[in-house]
Design brief:
single chain; alpha+beta; FAD/NAD(P)-binding domain; D-Amino Acid Oxidase, Chain A, domain 2; 2 domains; 7-stranded mixed sheet; 14 helices; about 40% helix
Protein backbone atom coordinates (compact mmCIF):
# COMPACT_ATOMS: atom_id res chain seq x y z
CA UNK A 1 0.00 0.00 0.00
CA UNK A 2 1.22 3.51 -0.73
CA UNK A 3 1.67 5.54 2.43
CA UNK A 4 0.22 9.02 2.81
CA UNK A 5 3.24 10.39 4.65
CA UNK A 6 5.72 9.69 1.87
CA UNK A 7 7.09 12.29 -0.50
CA UNK A 8 7.73 12.16 -4.24
CA UNK A 9 5.92 9.96 -6.79
CA UNK A 10 4.71 7.41 -4.22
CA UNK A 11 2.97 10.08 -2.19
CA UNK A 12 1.34 11.59 -5.27
CA UNK A 13 -0.55 8.32 -5.80
CA UNK A 14 -2.60 8.80 -2.61
CA UNK A 15 -2.39 12.55 -2.26
CA UNK A 16 -3.73 13.47 -5.69
CA UNK A 17 -7.33 13.12 -4.58
CA UNK A 18 -6.86 15.46 -1.63
CA UNK A 19 -5.02 18.02 -3.77
CA UNK A 20 -7.75 18.23 -6.40
CA UNK A 21 -10.92 17.55 -4.45
CA UNK A 22 -11.07 21.02 -2.92
CA UNK A 23 -11.28 22.64 -6.36
CA UNK A 24 -14.28 20.49 -7.22
CA UNK A 25 -13.02 19.83 -10.75
CA UNK A 26 -10.22 17.94 -12.51
CA UNK A 27 -9.32 18.35 -16.17
CA UNK A 28 -7.50 15.43 -17.76
CA UNK A 29 -7.06 13.61 -21.06
CA UNK A 30 -8.31 10.24 -19.82
CA UNK A 31 -10.43 9.38 -16.79
CA UNK A 32 -10.17 5.74 -15.69
CA UNK A 33 -12.80 4.35 -13.33
CA UNK A 34 -11.30 1.54 -11.24
CA UNK A 35 -7.75 0.93 -10.00
CA UNK A 36 -7.58 -2.78 -10.80
CA UNK A 37 -5.06 -4.43 -13.14
CA UNK A 38 -6.78 -3.14 -16.30
CA UNK A 39 -7.19 0.44 -15.11
CA UNK A 40 -3.73 0.87 -13.61
CA UNK A 41 -1.91 -0.81 -16.50
CA UNK A 42 -3.70 1.51 -18.93
CA UNK A 43 -2.95 4.56 -16.78
CA UNK A 44 0.71 3.57 -16.51
CA UNK A 45 1.06 3.16 -20.28
CA UNK A 46 -0.68 6.49 -20.99
CA UNK A 47 1.34 8.36 -18.37
CA UNK A 48 4.56 7.00 -19.89
CA UNK A 49 3.42 8.51 -23.18
CA UNK A 50 3.02 11.90 -21.55
CA UNK A 51 -0.78 11.86 -21.30
CA UNK A 52 -2.72 13.20 -18.35
CA UNK A 53 -4.70 10.39 -16.76
CA UNK A 54 -6.76 10.36 -13.57
CA UNK A 55 -7.76 7.06 -11.97
CA UNK A 56 -10.80 6.99 -9.68
CA UNK A 57 -10.81 4.32 -6.99
CA UNK A 58 -13.40 4.10 -4.22
CA UNK A 59 -11.03 2.26 -1.88
CA UNK A 60 -8.18 4.03 -0.12
CA UNK A 61 -5.73 1.12 -0.49
CA UNK A 62 -5.06 -1.90 -2.65
CA UNK A 63 -6.19 -4.67 -0.33
CA UNK A 64 -8.20 -7.29 -2.21
CA UNK A 65 -9.46 -10.66 -0.96
CA UNK A 66 -9.74 -13.77 -3.14
CA UNK A 67 -9.20 -11.79 -6.32
CA UNK A 68 -7.27 -12.65 -9.46
CA UNK A 69 -4.00 -13.93 -8.01
CA UNK A 70 -3.41 -16.39 -10.86
CA UNK A 71 -1.34 -14.74 -13.61
CA UNK A 72 -0.98 -16.76 -16.81
CA UNK A 73 2.39 -17.25 -18.58
CA UNK A 74 1.39 -14.70 -21.22
CA UNK A 75 0.49 -12.18 -18.54
CA UNK A 76 3.76 -12.82 -16.66
CA UNK A 77 5.62 -12.18 -19.94
CA UNK A 78 3.67 -8.96 -20.44
CA UNK A 79 4.32 -7.77 -16.89
CA UNK A 80 8.02 -8.28 -17.57
CA UNK A 81 7.80 -6.22 -20.77
CA UNK A 82 6.00 -3.49 -18.81
CA UNK A 83 8.73 -3.38 -16.15
CA UNK A 84 6.35 -4.54 -13.41
CA UNK A 85 7.58 -8.09 -12.84
CA UNK A 86 10.79 -7.09 -11.09
CA UNK A 87 8.72 -4.94 -8.70
CA UNK A 88 6.59 -7.88 -7.55
CA UNK A 89 8.92 -10.87 -7.94
CA UNK A 90 9.52 -11.17 -4.20
CA UNK A 91 5.74 -11.37 -3.63
CA UNK A 92 5.14 -13.97 -6.35
CA UNK A 93 5.20 -17.74 -6.49
CA UNK A 94 5.83 -19.46 -9.85
CA UNK A 95 3.71 -22.45 -10.80
CA UNK A 96 5.75 -25.12 -12.56
CA UNK A 97 3.01 -27.49 -13.63
CA UNK A 98 -0.73 -27.89 -13.88
CA UNK A 99 -2.59 -31.14 -13.36
CA UNK A 100 -6.12 -32.53 -13.65
CA UNK A 101 -7.10 -35.47 -11.46
CA UNK A 102 -10.37 -37.29 -12.08
CA UNK A 103 -11.65 -39.98 -9.74
CA UNK A 104 -8.36 -40.02 -7.82
CA UNK A 105 -6.13 -40.51 -10.87
CA UNK A 106 -4.13 -37.96 -12.83
CA UNK A 107 -5.49 -37.69 -16.37
CA UNK A 108 -3.72 -34.56 -17.65
CA UNK A 109 -0.49 -32.75 -16.77
CA UNK A 110 1.52 -29.86 -18.20
CA UNK A 111 5.16 -29.09 -17.36
CA UNK A 112 5.52 -25.44 -18.34
CA UNK A 113 9.31 -25.61 -18.70
CA UNK A 114 8.82 -27.88 -21.72
CA UNK A 115 7.28 -25.09 -23.84
CA UNK A 116 9.56 -22.87 -25.98
CA UNK A 117 8.29 -19.44 -24.98
CA UNK A 118 10.07 -16.60 -23.22
CA UNK A 119 7.33 -16.42 -20.59
CA UNK A 120 6.84 -20.08 -19.75
CA UNK A 121 5.24 -20.30 -16.34
CA UNK A 122 2.26 -18.81 -14.58
CA UNK A 123 2.68 -17.08 -11.24
CA UNK A 124 0.56 -16.44 -8.22
CA UNK A 125 0.80 -12.70 -7.55
CA UNK A 126 -1.50 -11.26 -4.86
CA UNK A 127 -3.23 -8.14 -6.08
CA UNK A 128 -2.09 -5.71 -3.36
CA UNK A 129 1.61 -5.76 -4.36
CA UNK A 130 0.75 -5.94 -8.06
CA UNK A 131 -1.53 -2.92 -7.98
CA UNK A 132 0.81 -0.95 -5.71
CA UNK A 133 3.70 -1.61 -8.09
CA UNK A 134 1.77 -0.38 -11.13
CA UNK A 135 0.64 2.72 -9.25
CA UNK A 136 4.20 3.49 -8.17
CA UNK A 137 5.52 3.13 -11.71
CA UNK A 138 2.71 5.29 -13.12
CA UNK A 139 3.34 7.92 -10.46
CA UNK A 140 6.88 8.42 -11.77
CA UNK A 141 5.23 10.49 -14.50
CA UNK A 142 3.67 13.90 -13.80
CA UNK A 143 0.49 13.31 -15.79
CA UNK A 144 -0.73 10.49 -13.54
CA UNK A 145 -2.96 10.90 -10.51
CA UNK A 146 -4.86 8.35 -8.46
CA UNK A 147 -7.91 9.76 -6.69
CA UNK A 148 -8.09 7.23 -3.89
CA UNK A 149 -11.26 7.20 -1.82
CA UNK A 150 -13.28 8.68 -4.69
CA UNK A 151 -16.43 6.80 -5.70
CA UNK A 152 -17.64 7.34 -9.26
CA UNK A 153 -21.33 8.27 -9.24
CA UNK A 154 -22.46 9.14 -12.76
CA UNK A 155 -21.23 10.01 -16.21
CA UNK A 156 -20.88 13.62 -17.33
CA UNK A 157 -22.03 14.50 -20.84
CA UNK A 158 -21.42 17.29 -23.31
CA UNK A 159 -22.69 17.63 -26.90
CA UNK A 160 -23.90 14.03 -26.99
CA UNK A 161 -20.65 12.57 -25.71
CA UNK A 162 -19.47 11.24 -22.37
CA UNK A 163 -17.21 13.96 -21.01
CA UNK A 164 -16.00 12.50 -17.72
CA UNK A 165 -17.35 11.38 -14.36
CA UNK A 166 -18.91 12.96 -11.31
CA UNK A 167 -17.43 11.33 -8.23
CA UNK A 168 -17.67 11.72 -4.48
CA UNK A 169 -14.49 12.10 -2.47
CA UNK A 170 -13.52 12.78 1.14
CA UNK A 171 -14.18 16.51 0.65
CA UNK A 172 -17.34 16.26 -1.43
CA UNK A 173 -18.23 15.93 -5.11
CA UNK A 174 -15.56 16.25 -7.80
CA UNK A 175 -16.14 16.60 -11.54
CA UNK A 176 -13.46 14.83 -13.53
CA UNK A 177 -13.66 16.01 -17.13
CA UNK A 178 -11.87 14.03 -19.81
CA UNK A 179 -11.75 13.49 -23.56
CA UNK A 180 -12.02 9.74 -22.96
CA UNK A 181 -13.61 7.91 -20.04
CA UNK A 182 -12.48 4.32 -19.50
CA UNK A 183 -14.65 2.04 -17.38
CA UNK A 184 -12.46 -0.53 -15.63
CA UNK A 185 -14.34 -1.14 -12.38
CA UNK A 186 -15.16 -4.77 -12.95
CA UNK A 187 -17.91 -7.26 -13.53
CA UNK A 188 -20.58 -5.40 -11.54
CA UNK A 189 -20.07 -1.97 -13.13
CA UNK A 190 -23.12 0.27 -13.26
CA UNK A 191 -21.73 2.33 -16.12
CA UNK A 192 -22.76 -0.07 -18.87
CA UNK A 193 -26.35 0.90 -18.15
CA UNK A 194 -25.50 4.59 -17.75
CA UNK A 195 -23.76 4.59 -21.13
CA UNK A 196 -26.70 2.79 -22.77
CA UNK A 197 -24.64 -0.27 -23.67
CA UNK A 198 -26.70 -3.43 -23.82
CA UNK A 199 -25.26 -6.73 -22.58
CA UNK A 200 -26.22 -10.32 -21.83
CA UNK A 201 -25.33 -11.82 -18.47
CA UNK A 202 -25.35 -15.62 -18.45
CA UNK A 203 -25.16 -17.39 -15.06
CA UNK A 204 -23.20 -20.62 -15.27
CA UNK A 205 -24.27 -23.79 -13.50
CA UNK A 206 -21.79 -23.44 -10.65
CA UNK A 207 -20.55 -20.92 -8.12
CA UNK A 208 -17.21 -21.10 -6.32
CA UNK A 209 -16.52 -21.08 -2.61
CA UNK A 210 -13.03 -19.68 -2.00
CA UNK A 211 -10.90 -20.35 1.05
CA UNK A 212 -7.22 -20.23 1.99
CA UNK A 213 -5.28 -22.83 3.96
CA UNK A 214 -1.70 -23.34 5.03
CA UNK A 215 -0.23 -25.72 2.47
CA UNK A 216 0.27 -29.17 4.03
CA UNK A 217 3.67 -30.80 3.40
CA UNK A 218 2.08 -33.59 1.36
CA UNK A 219 0.77 -31.13 -1.24
CA UNK A 220 2.87 -30.32 -4.32
CA UNK A 221 4.00 -26.72 -3.84
CA UNK A 222 4.64 -26.21 -7.57
CA UNK A 223 1.38 -27.48 -9.08
CA UNK A 224 -1.93 -25.90 -9.95
CA UNK A 225 -4.16 -28.93 -9.33
CA UNK A 226 -7.77 -29.52 -10.40
CA UNK A 227 -9.54 -32.38 -8.62
CA UNK A 228 -12.74 -33.83 -10.11
CA UNK A 229 -15.12 -36.42 -8.72
CA UNK A 230 -18.30 -36.95 -10.69
CA UNK A 231 -19.87 -33.52 -11.16
CA UNK A 232 -17.89 -31.83 -8.39
CA UNK A 233 -14.46 -30.24 -8.60
CA UNK A 234 -12.03 -27.98 -6.81
CA UNK A 235 -8.99 -26.03 -7.90
CA UNK A 236 -6.03 -25.86 -5.49
CA UNK A 237 -3.40 -23.23 -6.19
CA UNK A 238 -0.24 -22.78 -4.09
CA UNK A 239 0.19 -19.10 -3.28
CA UNK A 240 2.34 -16.84 -1.13
CA UNK A 241 3.73 -17.07 1.41
CA UNK A 242 3.08 -20.80 1.83
CA UNK A 243 -0.64 -21.27 1.43
CA UNK A 244 -3.20 -22.95 -0.79
CA UNK A 245 -5.99 -21.01 -2.42
CA UNK A 246 -8.98 -23.36 -2.87
CA UNK A 247 -11.93 -22.84 -5.18
CA UNK A 248 -14.69 -25.40 -4.57
CA UNK A 249 -17.62 -25.55 -6.95
CA UNK A 250 -21.18 -25.70 -5.61
CA UNK A 251 -24.54 -25.66 -7.42
CA UNK A 252 -25.57 -22.23 -8.64
CA UNK A 253 -27.29 -20.13 -5.99
CA UNK A 254 -26.79 -22.70 -3.21
CA UNK A 255 -24.31 -20.81 -1.01
CA UNK A 256 -26.99 -19.58 1.38
CA UNK A 257 -28.28 -23.14 1.86
CA UNK A 258 -24.73 -24.37 2.44
CA UNK A 259 -24.10 -21.69 5.05
CA UNK A 260 -27.33 -22.64 6.81
CA UNK A 261 -25.74 -26.03 7.53
CA UNK A 262 -22.78 -26.93 9.68
CA UNK A 263 -19.42 -26.23 8.05
CA UNK A 264 -18.89 -30.00 8.10
CA UNK A 265 -20.64 -30.19 4.70
CA UNK A 266 -17.63 -28.33 3.32
CA UNK A 267 -15.27 -30.81 4.97
CA UNK A 268 -17.16 -33.74 3.50
CA UNK A 269 -16.91 -32.38 -0.05
CA UNK A 270 -13.18 -31.82 0.30
CA UNK A 271 -12.76 -35.31 1.81
CA UNK A 272 -13.97 -36.74 -1.50
CA UNK A 273 -12.07 -34.41 -3.83
CA UNK A 274 -8.77 -33.93 -2.00
CA UNK A 275 -8.43 -36.11 1.10
CA UNK A 276 -4.85 -34.83 1.62
CA UNK A 277 -6.45 -31.55 2.72
CA UNK A 278 -9.00 -33.01 5.12
CA UNK A 279 -7.08 -32.44 8.35
CA UNK A 280 -5.85 -28.98 7.32
CA UNK A 281 -9.27 -27.67 6.36
CA UNK A 282 -10.77 -28.89 9.64
CA UNK A 283 -8.04 -27.16 11.60
CA UNK A 284 -8.08 -23.83 9.80
CA UNK A 285 -11.62 -23.34 8.49
CA UNK A 286 -13.87 -23.53 11.50
CA UNK A 287 -16.64 -21.21 10.34
CA UNK A 288 -18.29 -20.12 7.09
CA UNK A 289 -16.99 -16.59 7.66
CA UNK A 290 -13.57 -17.87 6.60
CA UNK A 291 -14.88 -18.51 3.08
CA UNK A 292 -15.91 -16.21 0.24
CA UNK A 293 -18.37 -16.69 -2.61
CA UNK A 294 -17.63 -16.02 -6.27
CA UNK A 295 -20.81 -15.73 -8.31
CA UNK A 296 -19.81 -17.37 -11.60
CA UNK A 297 -21.27 -15.85 -14.77
CA UNK A 298 -20.20 -14.50 -18.13
CA UNK A 299 -21.16 -11.18 -19.65
CA UNK A 300 -21.21 -10.51 -23.38
CA UNK A 301 -21.30 -6.85 -24.41
CA UNK A 302 -21.83 -6.48 -28.19
CA UNK A 303 -20.47 -2.94 -28.25
CA UNK A 304 -17.74 -1.96 -25.79
CA UNK A 305 -17.95 1.77 -26.38
CA UNK A 306 -20.13 4.86 -26.63
CA UNK A 307 -19.02 8.32 -27.81
CA UNK A 308 -16.33 9.40 -25.35
CA UNK A 309 -16.37 6.12 -23.36
CA UNK A 310 -14.97 2.58 -23.56
CA UNK A 311 -15.19 -0.52 -21.34
CA UNK A 312 -12.15 -2.68 -20.61
CA UNK A 313 -11.43 -5.77 -18.51
CA UNK A 314 -14.31 -7.48 -16.73
CA UNK A 315 -16.58 -4.51 -17.45
CA UNK A 316 -16.35 -5.34 -21.16
CA UNK A 317 -16.15 -9.13 -21.00
CA UNK A 318 -16.73 -10.93 -17.71
CA UNK A 319 -15.28 -14.43 -17.96
CA UNK A 320 -15.38 -17.56 -15.84
CA UNK A 321 -12.50 -18.11 -13.35
CA UNK A 322 -11.69 -21.39 -15.12
CA UNK A 323 -8.12 -21.31 -16.55
CA UNK A 324 -7.27 -18.11 -14.62
CA UNK A 325 -7.37 -15.68 -17.56
CA UNK A 326 -8.95 -12.61 -15.97
CA UNK A 327 -5.70 -10.71 -15.26
CA UNK A 328 -4.36 -11.76 -18.65
CA UNK A 329 -7.21 -10.15 -20.57
CA UNK A 330 -7.19 -7.08 -18.33
CA UNK A 331 -3.51 -6.41 -19.09
CA UNK A 332 -3.82 -7.09 -22.82
CA UNK A 333 -6.82 -4.73 -23.03
CA UNK A 334 -4.71 -2.00 -21.44
CA UNK A 335 -1.66 -2.33 -23.67
CA UNK A 336 -3.74 -2.58 -26.86
CA UNK A 337 -5.90 0.45 -26.02
CA UNK A 338 -3.11 2.75 -24.79
CA UNK A 339 -1.32 3.45 -28.11
CA UNK A 340 -4.61 3.78 -29.98
CA UNK A 341 -5.91 6.35 -27.48
CA UNK A 342 -2.57 8.15 -27.41
CA UNK A 343 -2.55 8.66 -31.18
CA UNK A 344 -6.15 9.86 -31.14
CA UNK A 345 -5.38 12.39 -28.39
CA UNK A 346 -2.44 13.75 -30.40
CA UNK A 347 -4.75 15.47 -32.90
CA UNK A 348 -6.27 18.95 -32.61
CA UNK A 349 -9.20 19.41 -30.25
CA UNK A 350 -12.06 19.29 -32.81
CA UNK A 351 -10.74 16.05 -34.30
CA UNK A 352 -10.21 14.21 -31.03
CA UNK A 353 -13.79 13.00 -30.62
CA UNK A 354 -14.04 11.19 -33.98
CA UNK A 355 -10.45 9.95 -33.63
CA UNK A 356 -11.15 8.50 -30.18
CA UNK A 357 -14.33 6.84 -31.42
CA UNK A 358 -12.34 5.20 -34.22
CA UNK A 359 -9.62 4.19 -31.75
CA UNK A 360 -11.96 2.40 -29.35
CA UNK A 361 -13.72 0.66 -32.23
CA UNK A 362 -10.32 -0.60 -33.43
CA UNK A 363 -9.51 -1.68 -29.89
CA UNK A 364 -12.60 -3.91 -29.78
CA UNK A 365 -11.86 -5.28 -33.24
CA UNK A 366 -8.38 -6.32 -32.13
CA UNK A 367 -9.39 -7.77 -28.78
CA UNK A 368 -12.76 -9.42 -29.34
CA UNK A 369 -11.55 -12.61 -31.11
CA UNK A 370 -9.14 -13.50 -28.28
CA UNK A 371 -11.78 -12.87 -25.62
CA UNK A 372 -14.32 -14.97 -27.52
CA UNK A 373 -11.81 -17.82 -27.86
CA UNK A 374 -11.09 -17.78 -24.12
CA UNK A 375 -14.79 -17.74 -23.31
CA UNK A 376 -15.41 -20.76 -25.56
CA UNK A 377 -12.53 -22.70 -23.95
CA UNK A 378 -13.80 -21.87 -20.48
CA UNK A 379 -17.34 -22.94 -21.27
CA UNK A 380 -16.09 -26.26 -22.64
CA UNK A 381 -14.16 -26.85 -19.43
CA UNK A 382 -17.14 -25.82 -17.28
CA UNK A 383 -19.36 -28.33 -19.07
CA UNK A 384 -16.73 -31.06 -18.79
CA UNK A 385 -16.25 -30.49 -15.06
CA UNK A 386 -20.02 -30.61 -14.47
CA UNK A 387 -20.56 -34.03 -16.08
CA UNK A 388 -21.94 -36.46 -13.52
CA UNK A 389 -23.51 -39.44 -15.34
CA UNK A 390 -21.16 -42.45 -15.21
CA UNK A 391 -20.87 -42.80 -18.99
CA UNK A 392 -20.13 -39.11 -19.43
CA UNK A 393 -17.56 -39.16 -16.62
CA UNK A 394 -15.83 -42.15 -18.22
CA UNK A 395 -15.75 -40.37 -21.59
CA UNK A 396 -14.31 -37.24 -19.97
CA UNK A 397 -11.44 -39.25 -18.50
CA UNK A 398 -10.73 -40.89 -21.85
CA UNK A 399 -10.62 -37.51 -23.62
CA UNK A 400 -8.25 -36.00 -21.07
CA UNK A 401 -5.94 -39.01 -21.32
CA UNK A 402 -5.98 -38.94 -25.12
CA UNK A 403 -5.14 -35.23 -25.28
CA UNK A 404 -2.45 -35.75 -22.66
CA UNK A 405 -0.88 -38.59 -24.63
CA UNK A 406 -0.89 -37.15 -28.16
CA UNK A 407 1.99 -34.67 -28.28
CA UNK A 408 0.93 -32.38 -31.18
CA UNK A 409 -2.65 -32.13 -29.89
CA UNK A 410 -1.50 -31.39 -26.35
CA UNK A 411 0.95 -28.70 -27.53
CA UNK A 412 -1.77 -27.00 -29.54
CA UNK A 413 -4.26 -27.06 -26.65
CA UNK A 414 -1.72 -25.79 -24.12
CA UNK A 415 -0.51 -23.06 -26.48
CA UNK A 416 -4.07 -21.90 -27.13
CA UNK A 417 -4.73 -21.60 -23.40
CA UNK A 418 -1.46 -20.25 -22.04
CA UNK A 419 0.67 -18.82 -24.86
CA UNK A 420 -1.77 -17.30 -27.36
CA UNK A 421 -0.53 -13.73 -26.76
CA UNK A 422 3.14 -14.55 -27.29
CA UNK A 423 2.22 -16.53 -30.40
CA UNK A 424 0.07 -13.68 -31.79
CA UNK A 425 2.86 -11.14 -31.21
CA UNK A 426 5.50 -13.45 -32.72
CA UNK A 427 3.32 -14.05 -35.79
CA UNK A 428 2.57 -10.34 -36.21
CA UNK A 429 -1.18 -10.74 -35.72
CA UNK A 430 -1.22 -8.44 -32.69
CA UNK A 431 1.11 -5.44 -32.67
CA UNK A 432 2.48 -4.79 -29.19
CA UNK A 433 3.33 -1.08 -28.99
CA UNK A 434 4.51 -0.47 -25.43
CA UNK A 435 5.48 2.95 -24.11
CA UNK A 436 9.17 3.72 -23.52
CA UNK A 437 10.31 3.16 -19.96
CA UNK A 438 13.48 3.48 -17.98
CA UNK A 439 15.44 0.32 -18.54
CA UNK A 440 16.76 -1.84 -15.71
CA UNK A 441 19.07 -4.82 -15.79
CA UNK A 442 17.29 -7.65 -17.57
CA UNK A 443 16.20 -10.68 -15.58
CA UNK A 444 15.13 -13.79 -17.49
CA UNK A 445 11.61 -15.11 -17.06
CA UNK A 446 12.20 -18.60 -18.44
CA UNK A 447 13.53 -21.53 -16.46
CA UNK A 448 15.27 -19.59 -13.73
CA UNK A 449 12.70 -16.97 -12.75
CA UNK A 450 9.23 -18.01 -13.75
Amino acid sequence: MVALNESGPRARVEAAGAETAGAGAVETDVCVVGAGPAGLALAMELARRGRRVAVLEQKTGFERSFRGEAVSPDAVWLLDRLGVLDEVRSSARPTRRTEIWDGGRRVFAVEFAAYPWEGRRPMEIPQPPLLAAMARLAAEHPGFSLLAGHSAARLLRSDGRVAGVLCTGPDGPVRVRAALTVIADGRYTKFREQAGLRYTKTPLERDLVWLKLPRPPVWDADAYSVRIAGGSHLAAIPTVPDQLRIGLNIPKGSYRQWRAQNVSVLYERIDVLAPELSATVREHVTDWSETALLDVFTTVVPGWSAPGLVLIGDAAHTLSPILGLGVHHALVDAVVLAPLADRALAGPGPSQGPALDAAVAEFQRLREPSVAASRAMQLRQERAFALSRPAAVALRRVIYRLVNGIGPVKRRVVTDVYFSLQRAVREGRLPLDLAPRREKAAVGIGDGAA
